[in-house]
Amino acid sequence: MGANSYGQLGDGTTVTFDGIYRPRLIATNGVVSLFAGALHSLFLKSDSSLWACGCNQSGQLGDGTQNNTNRPKMILASGVKTVSGGNLHTMVLKTDGSLWVMGDNSYRQLGDGTASPTSSPKQIVSSDVTAISAGGNHSLFVKSDGSLWAFGDNYYGQLGYGSIGFTNRPVQVVTSNVISIAGGYNHSLFLTTDGGLWGMGNNTSGQLGIGTYSNTNRPQLILSNGVIAIAAGRYHSLFLKADGSLWGTGDNSYGELGTGVGGFTNVPQLICASNVVAIAAGEEHSLFTKENGTVWAMGRNSMEQLGDGFTSTDPALPEQVYPPIPPRLTNNLAPGGDLIFTAACNFGGTYYLLETTNLALPRSQWSTVATNFIFNRSNNIFSATLNQATIPDNTPKFYILRLR
Questions:
Q1: Cα angle vertex 241, ends 23, 316, to 5°?
Q2: Handedness of CA 255, 258, 259, 264 (dihedral sign)
Q3: pTM of the model
């Protein structure tokens, strides 16, 4: 879901606003992991093949061209362990521990010693890489000895090695104990083996969570223990604790922290107290998954990126977006015998009131007795009144159905 002007949704179109505002199916099976860059999308299949779609103006899809594609295209047939997409570049970690890059190199984010882009995967490190993360215009990776390395844009100190400016070759930032990394637009986060959370780079929105709004070009300790997963957005950060609680810090102008309070915060705030198992940070929105498999979202929704059935409405609190919550239909008899229906519709879209006297009939043979397009959260009630004269003599069954 979301913006699609470059075909980054991979649904065969370049249409963003489809009038449905819900998730679109891209691949039916075999997908095991995925990553969204700024304008392109990447995913891996169970056969370790790499697929990509969307903007390719800098060669970030790695297919040897600079042509955009609105359908997933296989980039590498096998041997891929994980992938990460930045603003206009992509990092690929292969199963043999080698690191490959492609795309824009204006900020030296490919780490190959040049400033030249490449539209085909190019090897940077031959072995021992265990984790990767592409920031906006910088890149991070971890080696098997727990050391953290970085290259690319360092204007805000996001590489964390004590200086600012570009570097076109990997520079060691931390010598050991790093297990996970996350590159934001101009800041970086990493986890250590003891569950400690560290950050460096841009902090003007409080995204480092260190109690100040000052940038730092050296890693700063945010939390000393208990953190198991991290995600970095444009100006906000998310982290998941071992107890299943979700926390966030930084910019909350669009509700991306999901706390119900706008503005900035420079200390971590509790978003969800328990049962969270996975997190992701977009540019100005956030997503998380709970133990029961439900997906929740909050933040900016100008391009339908929340998939909640609405657009241009930015929820300040987390809302379940998948699977869609069905409307709760109620009905009662009005004076004179008319049948009044109301339903609380949790998501936008076109809703139909259907009736049938035989539940065994296919849905196509049910009758549509009322239609209502729900667009505004403040008025998301389906209502319909059926005159007594139009109600069949035998007892009908009424249901609300949402389009897709």
A1: 45
A2: negative
A3: 0.90
